[in-house]
Amino acid sequence: MKKISIIMAVVVAAILTSCNQSAPTASMKSEIDTLSYAIGMSQTQGLKDYLVMRMGVDTTYIDEFLKGFYESAQSSEDPKKTAYYAGLQIGQQVSTGMVKNINQMIFGEDSTQTVNEKNIYAGFMAAVAGKFDVMDLDSANSYVQTHMDAIQQAAKEKQFGENKKACEEFMANIAKKDGVKELGNGVYYEVLTEGTGEVAADTCRVKVHYEGKLIDGTVFDSNLERDPTVFGASQVIPGFKAALTTMPVGSKWIVYIPQDQAYGAQDMGNIKPFSALIFTIDLISIEK
Length: 288
Description:
Blueprint: H1 6-19, H2 31-42, H3 47-55, H4 62-73, H5 79-107, H6 117-129, H7 137-175, E1 181-184, E2 187-193, E3 205-213, E4 219-222, E5 229-232, H8 238-244, E6 252-257, E7 277-287
């Protein structure tokens, strides 16, 4: 391996020292010294991008990063400092990672709603310190399990309430439409072609041509221009499954599925929470 220029290394070390009083001064007395310095430098490739994108660091304050880095790196022989710097690291991960992920999970893209960040820190610190005067760990886990879905549902209804209302009105009008029959659980269908074949059980695999639309007519999925798809009758949303296990082979139906028999409060990208769906389903065969 070629040696790094000792003069250049000393210059770089001097610059670092002038920028940050905590920075060490490199000593280039041997090949190992130079190799060590080169290794340190080589490990920084992509670091600034990582700091910005993954840790939320403003590189205007890179001197503060370097100060913290060196102090933390030197703390390995001091258990008190090791604990402190571990707290700094975990705190950064919680604030820039966990809290943002929780907000995303509960509130989606609605930036007007947020969890109580200080309370997250308070609960976290109380549990680590073994202080359970407000609630114990079992109670905390139970509360999350029993209330998270309800809070998430309420947040989604606030954000997508208009879509839910429009879809409910659409389904109410479909129920009154001539020629429409009820399949159960609020699912309705119209027969375009009445088949005479057998009816699939939910354990069967079926070959299907289909097209899925939103209530405004937007097509979100279709295989009409491709070969039919083969899949398990139970591997689809409940409303689709109800149709597949009722219609005889050779049938072609238009099926109207309310949100609670589709994806409910889930955000599926082009299918927003609480969306009613319309499928044209052509059941070609049951695959043995």
